[in-house]
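Folds vary. Our protein:
___
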Amino acid sequence: MNQKATDIAPEVIMFVRHGEKPGEDTEPHGVNAEGKHDGHSLSVLGWTRAGALAGFFAHAPSEAHPHVVKPERILATRPTPDAKSKREIDTATPTARRLNLEIEDDHTHGNESNLVSEVLGRPESTLIVWHHGTMAKIVRHFPVVNKEDIPHRWPDERFDLIWVLVRQPGDELAYRFVVVPQLLLADDVETE
């Protein structure tokens, strides 16, 4: 039996940028999970954010963040010869471990439409951890009723946001775009 996407698409799809990264050949340095220097991994602050996100998602939803739910599925980009960043996997790993989920890393930069089809083809609430440079492009591939509210680009200086697509009631597959401030670390701020 062939189900329509409207019958199986997730109720909530969440997007986070990887945690804070190292400086360009300066401090702070990137470190891998073993604490060794690695320019393709997170900074110490980025690892702190990744750990805080694990607790945040494990206890979702909350009164302060009603649009954020506990993910049942996590997708993150994996390093490739062209895109060597390990930061997306680094950021997703603590949440995946905390929730006992596998990270799906089959999608890489450049295949956004395939990613969207796969996400819409399953019912699980989904967390996507991606590079901020193409995040807006991915979100625009989804059926969003308020596309004018989607920024043209994820703000370069912001690691403390969650972009959320909340499914709208009705027969048509449609989502509403919402920006949620994480407010997890001392310097996190509200959305503008």
